[in-house]
Amino acid sequence: MRRTAAWTGLGALFAQGLLVGGLAQAASPAGAPLRVQYLSGRAEVLGPGNVWRAASGTPAVPFGLRVGTGRARVTGSGGQVTGSVLLASASRLGVIGQEANLQEGNFLLDGPVAVHVRGLHAVMDRPGRARVDLRGNITRRVAVIAGSVRVALPGRVVTVNAGQGLDLASGAVTPFREDDPWYAAQFTGTGDATVQATRGTVRVVRGAESRSADRGETLDPGERLATGEGSWAEVGFTGGGGYLRLQSHSELSAIGAEGAGPGREVTLQLTRGSAWNVVPGGPSAPGGLQLRTPVVSTAARGAEFRVDAGGRVKMLGGDEAAPAGEPAPGSLAGTVPASRSLTLQLDPPPGPLRELSLSARSLPDARVTATVAGRRVTLTRQGDRFRMGRLTPPLPEGTYTVRVSAERAGQAATRWQTVVIDRTPPNLSALRAVRAGNVLTLTGTARDGGAGRVTLTARGGDSTFTRQVSGDFRLLLPAPAPGTPLRVTVRDEAGNESYADLP
């Protein structure tokens, strides 16, 4: 019945011709409409007449909402919307009745909540958490972190439980493991991240192993620091600049480290609970602890603030420095204005590769990283492009999905690219050359993993002939001078080669 109601509502919208500008302008029933609970950054609300207006405060959302740089949390008491929907940067939603219709971007659902996902009804009846990722036609997914969600696909209703993801295009349900919590806060500091003080139950977790945290212990990438009931832990950076106090029932993950020596940068991510962030001193204080969420990128001096895993920040005073990569107030440094929208474009790979290589375009002061097979690397800027250096050790052969992310001034952009690593040369067999007068008949078989065309090159003396072949081939070539050896080479798209010499 729920699926029928959802599709009936959509049919009524189309019949009334209310789909304007890509957002469903359904007239909201009486009662409380969707409303922005809090807003950080830039956002616009769609009003009557299909007019977008800048949002501020906690405006109602009768027809649609889109977020530029920042994020917004939407709640409502009408219909079944008793939970909330968090929108990431570059995300938008419309309204069907009094329920959000998620259209493009990244969303976090805190249940109980009912929404539409590009017109498909999704319901979380009980408290829980799920993410919805909609990026063009590449990523269309509902993934459940806690609880369960029922999604009305055409002709059937699918229940997605915690640890599962639903591909909206195929309807397939597969295991899901959170590896990109965009909604979580991140801290970056210089030097090593060390445990400076603890109280109660505090443990360091790496994979399936867990041990008590010792004072002075360094958190290495891949490790998590977790606190129990009534416990806390303080984490500082050896490069100075402040410390974090991880509250009880909280978890802090070391997700990356770059560089070496005093300038080494370590990034920590708050994946559960909350933490106090304290940066003592004035403008001359050494170091500088960076807090990065999808909407906040700040180096606070003489400040204390509390941040939770959902990214909500509460300042307790202090004076905020300019975000990383931007000039300080009054500075005339020649950087890109902070108001300029972050862009990220990937150059498609030419085909299979012997070694992983990536090329991207973004704003010159952005930080661009790539994550593949659990490894995260920073791309190097070369002119207006960012390029990936050689991975050591290299990736094994296979197909990989690479996540490329750009960050700048609180903005974030993510793209995905599939690459194939191939180091296996094509097979060349049953090669035979028969001369008849001035014609040479060359036959054989060339295969590249059972599929795909390869480039065949025959060299005899000063003559070279090139053809595209696949499987069994028979070529007629001008015959070289008698007694001239013939080398036949086959090369696949990745540049792997095999050859054979014929007398």
From TrEMBL:
Residues 316-334 have a biased composition (Low complexity). The keyword Signal applies. Residues 224-311 form the FecR protein domain. Pfam families: FecR. The keyword Signal applies. Gene3D superfamilies: Immunoglobulins (2.60.40.10). Residues 316-336 are annotated as: Disordered. Residues 1-26 form the signal peptide. Keywords: Signal. This is FecR protein domain-containing protein.
